[in-house]
Design brief:
Blueprint (H helix, E strand, L loop, with lengths): L5 H9 L7 H9 L8 H4 L5 H16 L3 H12 L5 H10 L2 H7 L6 H9 L3 E3 L2 E2 L12 E4 L7 H8 L10 E4 L4 E4 L14 H9 L2
Antiparallel strand pairs: 1-2, 1-3, 3-5, 4-5
Helix pairs in contact: 4-10, 5-6, 6-10, 7-8
Amino acid sequence: MKYTGPKAKRCRRQGTNLYGSDKYDKILQRKPQLPGKGPRDRAGRRSEYAQQLIEKQKMRDIYGLSERQFRSIYDRAAKTAGQTGEVMQQLLERRLDNALYRAGFAMTRMQARQFASHGLFFVDGVRVTSPSFLLKVGQKITPRPRSKTSPVFVSIAAAHDKYLPPAWMKVNGAGMEIEILSLPAPDKTEQVVDIRQVIEFYSRN
């Protein structure tokens, strides 16, 4: 198993599976230490700014966004009524690619992004090709008819009975359909990131 690829290094550096694939869980189990020479010597006390930067990078990598995309979401959250951290988490969770991943219709967010960008799913009957499309309460996501017969979707549907989607969506595994029931609750989103430190990082820059 390869421990030195860029994604494997990011997971080992952050100490968590950033990409959802089982192989990164196995890598972290076998190589829990930081990558590079003398990792234990470098893992000393971090400054407040360094810790904030780490949390920001971790969250950005989890959702697979560029710095520009991630900063744009923070800026939008900061201008929206409510707690910035909660709003930011909701904006990230409401993305079409994330919803496909959360529903269990993709093995990773990267795969979900590919499905979305290729227009394999409809939102309220309209084909959407933007992974960043923000879903609203009441909207329904359905697969493009010919997509359901694709071997990759057949295998995903077959294994879907074992998957438990979040409470803010209703999922029909057999039909590969999603209905957005409510806004994502902040305590039900990604828990491996300290969102307060992400907000503090951007508020000081």
